[in-house]
Prior knowledge:
Chain A is α/β, with parallel strands linked by helices.
Amino acid sequence: MNDALRSAQQHSAPAVxxxxxxxxxxxxxxxxxxxxxxxxNLLTGLNQHVGNWPGKTVEQRQGGFVHHQRTLRLVDLxxxxxxxxxxxxxxxxxxYILHEKPDLVVAVVSAAHLERSLYLVAELIALPAPLxxxxxxxxxxxxxxxxxxxxxxEAALGVPVVPLVATRxxxxxxxxxxxxxxxxxxxxxxxxxxxxxxxxxQQVLDQAQQLITxxxxxxxxxxxxxxxxxxxxxxxxxxxxxxxxxxRWESLHALLKAHDDAGLAIASGRYxxxxxxxxxxxxxxxxxxxxxxxxxxxxxxxxxxxxVILALILGAVxxxxxxxxxxxxxxxxxxxxxxxxxxxxGWLAAAPFWLRGLVIDGLIGGAGAVITFLxxxxxFFSVFGLLEDxxxxxxxxxxxxxxxxxxxxxGKSFLPLFLGFGCNVPAVMGTRVIExxxxxxxxxxxxxxxxxxxxxxxxxxxxAAFFGAQGALVSWGLVLFALLLLVVSGMALNRLLFxxxxxxxxxxxxxxxxxxxxxxxxxxxxxxxxxxxxxxxxILLFSLGVWALAVLPxxxxxxxxxxxxxxxxxxxxxLAGLDWRLTVALLSSFLAKENAVATLGVLxxxxxxxxxxQTLATTYSPASGLAFMTIALxxxxxxxxxxxxxxxxxxxxxxxVNVLLMLVVSFAAGAGVYTLAxxxxx
Amino acid sequence: MTTPPLPLCDxxxxxxxxxxxxxxxxxxxxxxxxxxxxxxxxIAMLQNYGHGPLLVExxxxxxxxxxxxxxRILITEQQS
Lengths: 682, 80
Ligand SMILES: Nc1nc2c(ncn2[C@@H]2O[C@H](COP(=O)(O)OP(=O)(O)OP(=O)(O)O)[C@@H](O)[C@H]2O)c(=O)[nH]1
Ligand SMILES: [Mg+2]
């Protein structure tokens, strides 16, 4: 990062600057995957999720920085292909621009996909907000031999155009200067040239505009509103129906009905405008050789090979986890946790029993045990971050499309589900990339069936404890089993709740690119930090709570409150070979999945010289172990996931449906596995 | 030279076509149009195995389409 940027980030020390005139608000708009978030992070230093599949930024983010003594507030809008009401993001983006009236809109476009990405500019340019075009990914365009004459493009558009390579911070200083000049009104340009509707529909547009003139809600430009009506925009239609007098609405309705092909005429008009803008400004090589993306996609999107590759990648993740992550976890436990326990025991020898228990069993045995999972999580986050950044995720969605059909879903639903391997919370939020509501709801309900990193860490620990060298294989099998159950549940829910509806599958496949280590590192750092924070707060509190329940009222585990709760549910657990301790561990995983191990750590206490893993292996039969692992993998989602499930689905009803689903699936699967394992002599 | 209209899903890999019309509902048409599927545009078929989703290139962008969606896009094939 260069010095100009570093100084741009010093928003924490406003006192050294003379009072800024007024905070200027700048909105970053653009189609998905253009590099908006990369630019946002660069300017504000505020970390947020960046990856190479379209539609990652699902909520709007803000951050501030100071440039030339002016405080700028930057808003990262979600990526949208257009400003029509096709998806919630598109409504968010356009409402923001129309109602919040930012001082400037920066439209981020890709030099490598200029024609397509200017489509949004064709819409933005018709709005009153001042506009700057950030021409990002100049490096990719250069690689493909595409030459762009920036001054010519700028003159054609009548809007400032700044070339950028956001990942390398190239051109950012210039962008800030141009923004400054636009805000002070000192950037002079020829007038904007606006796109027009395809001539054969001009008359219809004029008629529509006449009908609504005088009745358009404030903030909506009349010409823009008329063209949105012709595009069949449901949201604008609703608004106009509310604002128009009865007979005007009737004529408008009749007009729109007679010309339901007018939307296409508008889109054609915009693309014709784009072609005019680019004719003199862009030179691309003729023919062009086979690109890296072409070559890789011959394998990655092949209906059979593609699935094999996906399976191998998933397999590699588990292999990495078990060969590097699990030993590291054990090492942390023996090299860090055990000496720590010893030291604490020595120091607290004279302390009252409750303090000793609190520190050793609650703090070290509970929260400490969870921290040792960090290496496993870091490996997960790194691999998924890498796959995201390289551009592989959309390919995974593509090859999964056929399988997703069985559940009435399509490939796009695979993206959030895949993200679920990291954490179910972003998975549920990520379902916003799915346009149709039934498909989105179904994906949301299924997302918690994907084993998240925390559950996988628990699984890795238990598998190593119960099955030693075969642990990796057993986990692999269990995860596949969980995914199979996901498919079966999906098929059932689709029939039961959604009557087999289907939605359209349209998805852009981004170009592959060399992974950006900074992006990935940022991602891993952020997610790991979030986990440590959780361990230091929620999980710590929870471990202490479990410890308290485990010693109260009498100081004896066998008669504690915890044992009573566990015994109450034990008859149910017994069907799956679980005793009260394992049942309690499951219940405790509701607050956070990692708690399952933390609770066992507290319940068994830390042995003098043997770790929890050994204790477990000697206490339970492999059949019970396997059943416990199965249920732990599928048990009700953690509290955080349920909270976002409620938020995203809009009601507790669906959260409850999900809990019910997971309870039934997990216990049925657990009991099934236990019975089978017993029958086979486990 | 052009051939009679055919749905996009019948275009063979490696072949190109020119878009004639979109027969989806309004929602589908709007989404496709925003991605660059407008009358007269050239579409190159990158992958089409006769079943499952297909892969096309339109306006220098790779787009994956479900078979049902490709069924509603009418093209004429370009002889090369
Ligand atoms: N080669 C290259 N890659 C870039 C550049 N800018 C961004 N990227 C990469 O493009 C991908 C997408 O970047 P993001 O910043 O997440 O894009 P976005 O516009 O925020 O995407 P959504 O949030 O999905 O709308 C990431 O893998 C970035 O590393 C650039 O100038 N050159
Ligand atoms: Mg983003």
